[in-house]
Amino acid sequence: NLFSECQSLITKGLEITRVLDNPSYELELYLWKARLNAWQISSVIEYNEWLLIQDDLLARQRAIVECEVLAREMKNLNRRTAPISVALKDHLEQLYADFEAGDIEKLSLRAKIGAYSALAEYYIYMHKHKNAEDQIQGETTSEEKALQFRENVIRLFSENKQYADEEQLRFTAELDVYVNQCLVMNRPVQFINLESGWDKENSELIMYRNVAYQTMQYHLLNNEFLKAKLFFERENIAAGLEKHQHRIVENRLLAIRFTIGQIYYALDDFDHASDWFVKVAYMNSEVRPDVVLPCKVLEAICLWERKVYEHTQTRPIPKLRRNLKRAGMLDAFVKDILDAVELVFRHSTGLKKTNLAERLEKLENDRDGNKPRTYYYLIIVWLRARLHRTSINKEILKFEPS
């Protein structure tokens, strides 16, 4: 009985590893199978057959590693905008020749995904470093080639849903890059392809988790605040998030809520902005302390702008200061931020007679080059808007992020 149960478990395990294209696990299971069969003389695996299986699995693993390393190297090059080496370029040109010959489609699933990702990153790199005279009339541009390879990656995930479910983080990352490239190239029609092959629930999840988030981020980064708001309301993103929030990882859910809050905040719509900043402020601070902590301050600002504290103007700041001190999160920079906000709360008019301008200069100098303090710029632009009696979006347009 134990022998048959072990055989059954190994057989099921092999089926799963093949679906997930994991040769290293498959090799381990075959090793266990060989050991198990050695105890049953009637079912010993032939030595030559075992060697062939081993060689095939090692070759598959080698191809996966090579393709994924190429993709990682190209991603790093694109992030650093560093020059590509001759050897790496030759390797990728050979990979493109393999694609044209149809050899990439003969690879295993993970190797194919790695190969197409590497080629997509390569042609994005070529697009960034192209010369106008290099482009031949009528030839597919590097940017279009990159998008085609991104589509191949998404196609492979769509055709292998069990693998997509198992590799959720990678699938989400690939979707984000794909959607963002569609936006940059002004190809919204490409979103339709995302839904092919997925059931209604998964199509909606992709829409809210990836397409909606990247679209709002794109408009936000391009200072198109009204477009972002119209998209958010037209597509009924709030209801979609409410429905699918338990299927979205906390880090992404936080990022989406924060993005929505920023959109309304940039439009001086403090009523709606506070609704979303509050959601972020009470999420787990360990997930993204660089976002959650600024949102606690932004929540106070929005409530003050809504005149919730009309008769006790400075009330939220001392309480927030105490809470942060108790939690060990009140460093010198945060203290200076809270002091500046409290100053505005106390002197909503006549701020030019205070030392707010000097405080702002110090805050901007302390924030520059400090990545964990990136999102405090939202508080700084509000302080500027109050000092200069302008709107937040005007101050955002003038702001130079570090």
Describe the 3D structure.
The chain is mostly helical and 402 residues long. Helix content is 73%, strand content 0%. It has 20 helices and no strands. The chain has helices spanning 2-19, 23-38, 47-80, 86-100, 109-128, 142-159, 161-166, 168-184, 191-195, 200-221, 225-234, 237-244, 250-266, 270-281, 289-305, 316-326, 332-346, 356-367, 377-388, 392-398. It is elongated. The mean pLDDT is 88.
How does the SSE layout of this entry go?
Elements: H1 2-19, H2 23-38, H3 47-80, H4 86-100, H5 109-128, H6 142-159, H7 161-166, H8 168-184, H9 191-195, H10 200-221, H11 225-234, H12 237-244, H13 250-266, H14 270-281, H15 289-305, H16 316-326, H17 332-346, H18 356-367, H19 377-388, H20 392-398
Helix pairs in contact: 1-2, 2-3, 3-5, 4-5, 5-6, 6-8, 8-10, 10-11, 10-12, 10-13, 11-13, 13-14, 14-15, 17-18, 17-19, 18-19, 19-20
Quick overview of this protein structure:
The protein has 402 residues and is mostly helical. The chain has helices at 2-19, 23-38, 47-80, 86-100, 109-128, 142-159, 161-166, 168-184, 191-195, 200-221, 225-234, 237-244, 250-266, 270-281, 289-305, 316-326, 332-346, 356-367, 377-388, 392-398. It contains 20 helices and no strands.
Describe this protein with a few key phrases.
mainly alpha, 402 residues, elongated, 0% strand
Largest sheet: none
Task: Classify the helix fraction into a percent range.
Answer: over 70%
Q: Name the beta content range.
A: under 5%
> Can you tell me the residue ranges where pLDDT is under 50 for at least 5 consecutive residues?
none
* SS-based class: mainly alpha
What is the typical, i.e. mean, pLDDT? 88
Q: Tally of extended strands?
A: 0
Tell me the number of helical segments per DSSP (H or I, 4 or more residues long): 20
The ordered H/E elements are: HHHHHHHHHHHHHHHHHHHH
In one word, what is the shape? elongated
End-to-end separation: 66 Å
Radius of gyration equals 27 Å
